[in-house]
Amino acid sequence: MQKKFKKLRPGLFCIAVVATISYLIAQLPWFMQAGISSLIIAIILGILLGNSIHHPESWTPGIQFSAKRILRTAIVLYGFRVSFQQIASVGIEALFIDTFVVGSTIIVGYWFGRKLLKLDRDLALLVSTGAAICGAAAVLAAEDILKSEPYKTAVAIGTVVLFGTISMFLYPTLQHLGIFNFSESQFGIFAGASVHEVAQALVAGSNISLQAGKIAVIVKMIRVLMLVPVLFILSILVSRKSSTKKINIVIPWFALGFIAVIGVNSLHIFSDEIVHLINQVDIILLTMAMTAIGIETKFNKIKKVGMAPLYLASILFIWLLISVSSLVKII
Question: pLDDT tens across 97-128, in order?
């Protein structure tokens, strides 16, 4: 055990330093108000670091450990952000909208990505999953199932950050201008069901009212919960596409852990202070994973992808805007 940790130590130290810097930057008032999380900062710093210096070979084990093991642990702990009571509080309408949004967005994204834009399977699914569920965290979880190359993950996260940021500022503006004409609760449901990241949904909803912000977060967390069935479906699809004749369905244990943690959180065993502390630790772990993926991402591979992922993300942005706003008004 000690020998293994010694092997991981150089890379883990580098990752921890960059992740800590990213976390501290994200706590600055401007970044908090803009909804820019430490995850976004970490992948940018990681990419800059990975493309500016050639890191020693001794760093590799720690970097890979952060991108895999630490990532899975962070996804499990992400379950402390939601409870089954919160899900029940927003009603069956919000649950229906979220179910439709997640399923339809992945299907639409995969079809357009593969058929129209000629993207490979992984990029089409990563961009679609990020837009459909919970942004960067969903991309990271899907990446672990698909075993994608780091640059594809970075590209998908880049599209989530871009269009999530646009929606975070655009949607409240359209509401204030009277274009949406939603009630506070309707806007909260709309923001939670359409904005990419949790923090971005909170900012968008809170720009209308505290109540809209609260509803937006709860509706958003229902989308987060749907990460579990999506991961299982991806796991089955990947297994069936395997070149071997025998189909081995790999059960994503961290998805089961995610559900188990939601169950524990729903029992209110831990105090709010402890849950808050766990969530802060989880943010740091996710930030470490994002840093590692950034370091492993090379500019030359990103350039080869071209503009197609951006086009796909823009299609999904329009799809989310039109479909969710229509559903909110109908229901």
Answer: 999 999 999 999 999 999 999 999 999 999 99
With H, G, I as helix, E, B as strand and everything else as coil, classify residue 187: helix
Q: Nearest 5°: CA angle at 288, between 124 and 20?
A: 135
Question: Do 185 and 212 contact (CB within 8 A), yes or no?
Answer: yes
Beta strands in 247-307 (DSSP E): none
Q: Which two tokens stand for residue 252?
A: 């994503």
Residue type, 52: S
Q: How far is CA 184 from the centre of its chain?
A: 25
Query: How many Å apart are CA 111 and CA 105, to the nearest integer?
Result: 10
Q: What is the pTM of this model?
A: 0.81
Angle (nearest 5°) at CA 133 between 129 and 135:
80
List pLDDT tens digits, range 165-187: 889 889 999 999 999 999 999 99
Residue 219: how many other CB atoms lie within 10 Å: 29
Burial of 115 (0-12, 13-18, 19+ CB in 10 A): exposed
The CB-side HSE value for 95 (13 A sphere, CA atoms) comes to: 10
Q: Give the per-residue SS3 of 173-228.
A: HHHHCCCCCCCHHHHHHHHHHHCCCHHHHHHHHHCCCHHHHHHHHHHHHHHHHCHH
Could you list the residue range(s) of the whole structural domain that residue 59 is in? 2-330
Asked if residues 214 and 86 have their Cβ atoms less than 8 Å apart, the reply is no
Q: How many domains does the chain have?
A: 1
